[in-house]
Structures are given as C-alpha cells and as structure tokens.
Structures
1.
Amino acid sequence: MEIVTRVADLQALIAKKRTYNSLLGFVPTMGYLHEGHTTLIDKAKSDCKTVVVSIFVNPTQFGVNEDIDRYPRDLTRDIELCRAHGVDILFCPEVIDIYPRGKYTWVDVEGEIAEIACGAVRPGHFRGVATVCTKLFNIIHPDRVYFGEKDFQQLAVIKRVVNDLFMPIKIIPVQTVRERDGLAKSSRNSYLSPTERQAARIMPKLLAAAKEKCESGVSSSVEIVDAVKAASKESPMFEFEYAIVVDDSTFEEITNIVRPSRILIAGKIGKTRLIDNIQLIPCATVVKNQNF
Amino acid sequence: MEIVTRVADLQALIAKKRTYNSLLGFVPTMGYLHEGHTTLIDKAKSDCKTVVVSIFVNPTQFGVNEDIDRYPRDLTRDIELCRAHGVDILFCPEVIDIYPRGKYTWVDVEGEIAEIACGAVRPGHFRGVATVCTKLFNIIHPDRVYFGEKDFQQLAVIKRVVNDLFMPIKIIPVQTVRERDGLAKSSRNSYLSPTERQAARIMPKLLAAAKEKCESGVSSSVEIVDAVKAASKESPMFEFEYAIVVDDSTFEEITNIVRPSRILIAGKIGKTRLIDNIQLIPCATVVKNQNF
C-alpha cells in the first residue's frame, strides 16, 4: 500500500496503476475507520482492480458550532486497517492540499434533498460534503465510489451531484454495519460514555418500532413519526431531533407510504449526535384489504 | 462535421474520435457566431486533433429581467460557419438535455471575482455560467477549452472553478476580436440600431482613453475610472454602468496600478448592454521618476 498526502503524487501513482479497462474504486472517509468503512473497502476490492481510500476531515462540512478538532483521529490504526484490507493507495491530504487557493468555489445542492432532515439541522453541511466530494472525484477520477447507507441523505445528495453535473462515476451504496445491539457503526460512537452507549440502544429500537408499525399496515408517515417521537421519550438521556419519512430512491418527503421508503432518525445523547435510518416496505396486503 | 443534440450521442461520437495522446479542444458558445467565435475555433483547431463546439443558450445565466427569448439565434448560419472552420462535432442540446432532472445542483463562486463588476449587476449570472460550464466539461472531457478575453470576468470565474475543483482542463484565453472602429465583436451588437451602433463607438474610445492615461503615468485606479466616467458623458446615448480596474491575473480590484492590470467597462446603449476591457500596463519610467 502506498500512502500519499500531495495531490500530484496521488495522481502520478494512479496514472501508473490504472490500466486499460480496469476499474478504479474509491472510498472517501474522514478516518477513525471502523467495520462500516472496511465493508466499503471490501466491496470496492471485490469490484475493482485498484482501490483508493482517502482520509480527510473536511473543515467545510462542519458548522461553526461543531467542533472539528474534537473529531476522533487515529491514523496509525487507520493505516493498519487499510493495509489489512488490501487498499492500494491511501490518500491523506492536508486542508491546504484540498483548498490550496482558499474556499471560494462551492458545489451547492438546492431543494428538499439537501434542505430537510440533516440539511435543516446542519446548514452548509451538505455544501461542504458536495464540494469536497467533487474535488476528490476530480482528483482521482474513480469509476466507482462507495458510500454507506448510514448517511442516507449524504448518499442521496452525492447521487444528485454526480447525476446533475454529469460526472462519469457510479455511486455504490453499501448497507449499514451495526453493533450486536443494533447501533449503527460510527466514528462518533467513540464519544459516548459507557452509560451513554447503553442509552444509544434507543436508536435501533426506534427504527425497529417504525418498521414494525409500517409492516403492520400503518401507511401514514405522520402516525409513524409520532409513534417514534413518543417512544423516544422513554429514554430520558435521548434528545429527539427529527424523524422523517422519504422516498427510498428520490429522497422526497412522503406522507403516505405506498412504495419503498425510508425513515431517518436523528437525536442526541449528551453532546453526541446520532443518525440512523431503515427501509420501510409498505404492507401491500393490508393496503389492499383497506380497499374493500 | 457531425451535429448532435443528445448527450449520449455526443459522448459516443467523442469516444469514437478520441485517440490516445491526441488533444480534444472545446469551444462553448451561445450561438449566433461571429469572428470572435471563429477565432476561438481556429485556435482550437491549430492546437487539437478534435474540436467540439457547443451552441446552448443557457437559461440559468440570464436574470429574471433579462430576456433570454430575445437572444439572437441563427442555427443555419452557425452550422455553416462551424463547418467552414473545420469543427469536428457540433453539440446543440436542448435545455432538457443539460438540466434533465431540473435545476438543483449549482457551482457557485464566492468572493470578489464573481461579486464585483458584472457579478454585482447580474446576480446569479456567474453561478449559471459556472454550472453550465462544469456540466459541459464533465460531458465532453476536453483537454483544452477556449474563451474570449472580451468576457474577461467570465474567463476569471471559469479559471477559478477549474482550479478549485481540480478539473484536468487547460483554459486558453483568446484575444478579443474587434470591428474596424474598435467595437468588440459580440452577438449582442445585432441588437443595435444604426444610430446606436454609431454611439457604441464610445466603448473602444473609453478603453483607449484609460490606456493612454495609464501609459502617461497615472497609476491611480480612481483617477482613471473617474476620467472614463467623465468621458462617457460626452455620448448622450451611453448609460454608464461601471468601470473597474482589476489585477490582470488574479482579478482582484486594485487601487494602484503597479503591475499588469485590466480596466473593465460596462454600459448600455438603448436596451443593449455592452461590456469590454483592455489591459493596462503601468508606465514604469514615470513611476520611477516620481520616486526622485
């Protein structure tokens, strides 16, 4: 595995490794890698001849009140993990490498897709994500890029950018990897104290409750969201932020679940913000019966 | 010459024509071609094996009060001109081809470069330009793109986008082509009535006056701009909009001309908005003498 920090060095390496008709896979990360990331890497390795991983804690996707310096880092461990999973090139740029002329050009997504849910709670966040991904995609020119479904809105925003700007890239979504008790793997879980970690079990429970409600025949988003909100009060440490139901493929907010949808939930435990989501499949039988 | 309107057809054609190590040149236009455009095409032809020209009147770079439907069009003549100048592929998409999923993703440039001069007068204009160029660049993947210096701020904005987003493209500026009396060639000149066309001669005169003033030893931007403003009043048909001096390479507004700079002038004659610019070279000798 080669480790590079400069854009020019990365591009020289890629030019050397890239051969005609072979795929280049890319996994962008902010480091502090866990099984969610290594699953992305394994998927990329199984699809592509060459795999590039980037580790870059992108300042522009953090809000003014979000502490970027607090974001967990462990480059030594990340390097070990990447090496163990067969990564070909690890790209660890500094801020100056990605924003060499300052922060002037932005890729900005308008509309529900970037403005509801986390877009409303973290203004500017998706602009930062869209901009840094565009930069990285243009530097690396991957054929395929791998994103976890845990950050479902991020995935939707990136798909939109790639489609709207005609980038010749295939975005590959990869299923969320979970802890034994169902909590989605996240670098931010490391912020949780043991007591908070216990309380975090509320997240998968809320998702399971929403899924069950939908499968039992409830098709009203409001009803499901209200149930989630009510259930969230059972955990005194959990500060509910939002629950929202969107179309699974278009990310449009929907009121009546008649096609594959997804509920996204966000909340805080102590200072730690957690997000997660699950697919909701409408209960066709019940819906049919209601027509009688 | 092949003429295509669909993105997929264009990309198939380019894939067929592009050969290893040969350059692909691109000239983006809004049509109604004149000698300014054909000079860009000729330059592209002399540099590159394959030349693509696009004709697309991009709606997102027109303001709400700017009449896009009034923009002059003559596709038959444009096709003839492109053919005569050896264009390989002419791309004439519809709005739906370039914005197939609506208008959600934007490339936005912040800072002086996009906010002063035309950026102040035409809010949103450069966002439209940056977005459509990014789309076209990603569709075509040219090695070199040719822009006229007449739209000097547009050139600066595009250079910034290409650099900031790490696009592997070389932007080639081409000198402004002028009519015999000095008026810069522009599709918009066709709006001018014979009387207005006469009055339009004020534009190159103002530029010449600014250049002369600078060469005679005046290094103060304010003084030069004020002189231009005063001189513009000599033409009762000319409605002065702005005059601004910027650094020739960074596009920063400057107050003291001690390095190659550029004065940009904009104004209206009747309903027709005209812009133009000229390089200002500081008079080194005079500046030196002032130090004694």
2.
Amino acid sequence: MLSFLELLDRATARWRKVPGPGRVLLVGAGPGSPDLLTVRAVAALQAADVVVHDQLVPGDIVALAPARARRIDVGKRKGRHSATQAEINALIVSQARAGRIVVRLKAGDPGVFGRVGEEIAALTDAGVAFEVIPGITAAVAAAADAGVPLTLRGVAPTVTFISAHGADGSSARGWSGLASEGGTLAIYMGKSAGALVRDRLVATGMDLATPVIAVENAGREQRRIIAGHVADLPSISERSDLDGPVVILAGPAMAVAEPRALSHQTAA
Amino acid sequence: MLSFLELLDRATARWRKVPGPGRVLLVGAGPGSPDLLTVRAVAALQAADVVVHDQLVPGDIVALAPARARRIDVGKRKGRHSATQAEINALIVSQARAGRIVVRLKAGDPGVFGRVGEEIAALTDAGVAFEVIPGITAAVAAAADAGVPLTLRGVAPTVTFISAHGADGSSARGWSGLASEGGTLAIYMGKSAGALVRDRLVATGMDLATPVIAVENAGREQRRIIAGHVADLPSISERSDLDGPVVILAGPAMAVAEPRALSHQTAA
C-alpha cells in the first residue's frame, strides 16, 4: 500500500527540486470542498510562498498553505472587482520574478471559465515559468452530487459547458446548435438568468419538457439538488433561498435523475 | 494551517460514520497520475473493502487501497472486454449487498464517457446506496499539460467533449453544429480515427487551418504534446510511436498554444 504521505511528498518534490527563479502554479481549487482538491493541488498550496486567490475560494482551502505564505485576495465577486485582470497579471509576474513560488488559486478548473488564458498569455510574454494544475469543474461536481452522468451511451453523445453570462455582453454567442442530438448542456452561472436560458435552450431546439437538474453549491456539504424541466428555469431564478452558485444541467440524460437524485439524497 | 492528515481523516469519516449495509462509491481515478486523484477519492480507496477497477487505471492508484481490500480487475482494453457491463453491474450490487464498501474505480471522471449511467441505473434498481466521487477528466488534464485554456473570453465561449468512437456504431451522432462560434472541441479516443475526425470537423464548419493540440497520456509523467492543425490529424493517427490514449483539443483558443506549449515544456 502506497501511503498517502508518500504520495504527497512525491507531488511536493516536483516544485522543490526545480532550481532557479520563481514560478507560477495556476491551480484549480475545485468546487469548494477541501477534499475535492487534487493531491497535486494540496502539494502546490503547501509549497507556496504566495497565494493569490479569488473570493469564491473558501477560507479552509486557502488555509492549506503554510502560515508563512503571504495571502493576497484579488476577490472577484459578482458585480464587484477588487483587482482588474491586468493588475492580477502584473502581480503574479512580479511575485514570480522575485523568486517566489506563486500559487494562483482559481475556483473549479483554471481552463473552464477561469480566465486562465489571459494569465498564461501574460506569463508567457514575461518569460515566467508556469504550470497548470487541473481542478474539478462545477459541472462535473454537480453531476456527481445529483448521481447523473454527463454523457450517456445511446442518449447523450456529448457534453458542452457554457456560461449563462457569456462574454463581454455578446452573451448569445456560443448557443446556436448546441442542443442537437441529445447532448447534455452544463450551464454555469445560470441562476440569475433562468428565463433567458430557457429561451436560448428552446431556440437551440430543446423542448420545454427536457429534463433539467439545477445544483446549488455543487461539490459542497450544503449543496441542494433541484430536478425539473426547461420550463421551470425562470422559477428557479426567482427563488430567493438560493444564494450560492448554481449549475444547470439540461438534456435527456438528466431524465434518469429525478428519482435517483432523491434516492441518492436519502441514502447519503 | 489545516493539516493534510486532518483533511484526509475528515474525508474518510464520511463513509465510516454511515451505519448499515454496504454501498458503492463510483470513483473517478483521474487521468493516471496518483497525485491527480482528489483527496476524497484517496479517502474512498483507503476505506474500500473491495476495489473493482478497469485496466486503464494504473497499478499505483489501485495500490492506495489497503492490503486487506479485495481487488477485482474488470479490465476493458480497446477491443477486449474481460467482463461485460451486465457482469460488472451484478458484481458491484452483490458485493455491496454483502455489506461491503465497494469502490468502483473508473479512469477520468465517472460521468464523462465512463458508462456510470448504466451502473447508477443498476444500483438504483437494486436499492443499493451509492455516491459518485468526481475525477479529473482527460480533456481538462490535457489542457493543463499543454498550458492552454478550454474556454477563452472573446474567442471560445464553450467547450464540448465528444468521443471519436461514438456509441453503438452510430458514431457520427453528436457532431453536427459543434464547431460553431469558436467553441473548443475535446475529442476523446481520437488517435485511431484522425482522418475521420478531420472530415467531421470540416463538415461541422472548422477550417483545415484551425489549431489543434493532441496530448498523449494526458496528466501522466510521460505525456507528449503535439501542436498542429486540423489538416494534420491523419498524420497523428499514423504515428506508430503514440501508443497511449490521445485527447485532441481543437478550436481557435488553441492558437495561443503552439509557442506556449513549447515554452512550458522547456520551463518544466
């Protein structure tokens, strides 16, 4: 039996053995539970001299870094930006150039709606060494919580991740043709835009009766699972009791979920 | 600072505190490196009485289970099935009914091309309690390895996962309309079907010059990253030196990757 500490030591040795100047580890913090971090992400945090994190990352994940590590909150909350992307880019470059191991901690996976592209570009332009450490993205955690598959043989040949907020105001971009042939859609940041998401799903060919699973706080202890249909999306947006992030999973593969989510919930 | 062992103990307590009959933990083993398991997945393995695993899962991950745990290889290799899906379903149900903690270990994430839907259906029908523990899926690991984002603001509003093998022979299903509007496509099991994948990408609207990153053995020490274009996919299939699993990432967001993948490689 390989011991857990051996595994952690082996992962940590990755960065300690690299000589020379600082580097940036772009780390996926996963959906929020500390035990949904990868071992490699935990090792990165424990090797950190500096942790640069968003406010979506819970405190008990940031707490995995050593006490001596400097913590910098560049918190982006909905509707508020305490640091611009350009400021974050400049910060991680300058910290790495000072010879430090910089952990840039992002909710979920850095490559999925995490703006890691901008940071990679800045690091590459500056000649700063970096590594991306993947994380569990919210849609994957939501499906696990609900006990449903994202792809399903003979039913859902694909899964597509899309954000309800879209990018830079052109938020309808990416939606056309998405719902064809039974594929599952995983809609990030879907809570606030239920009616809009419903209309887009219908426009792309989904039926109002297509099954939907909405998961609030996916991957966390306090997650809630709501099973319904595309027609129900506006009423989910109107619920004042949902204040955590919501991922919406839509498509025929979710049809297996309504009874199973319940049996799963009561079994757990 | 939260200690790593406290984190592991907390995760392990999840299953030990549940009284009564056995259960099945459907666990994502991630792309192959033990340190890309989540802490929760390691805790599940360490709590296992029985581990039922595919042959794609490396031995040093299975080795995280205690020595007393029974290991059952239901290996599915390409072109060979040593156990049918129905046999696997019956096995995990009967082992759980015997009061055991059964870890069903699947490469990547159970919900993404992992056939977890069939196993969830069997467990639900049998009234066996289960829990899905998510894992890092190959496309996410491949993007991290290559240092590229899967979505990119203003360029790639979506990412879609699809298998080059398709399901049940109807393997063209799911491809229509996929490449619209700059979204990234992540093609699993893409190595053997390069010319077919090229033709499908072109049919769905991609240009032959669209950038592509192919990653062999994503998430493992020996991973290899090949940057090219849609037109190059047949030649990747013809390479006899690629014998590990290959994920193909295609779309304009990969354009940032060619120089960066190289600088990342030399920096690591």
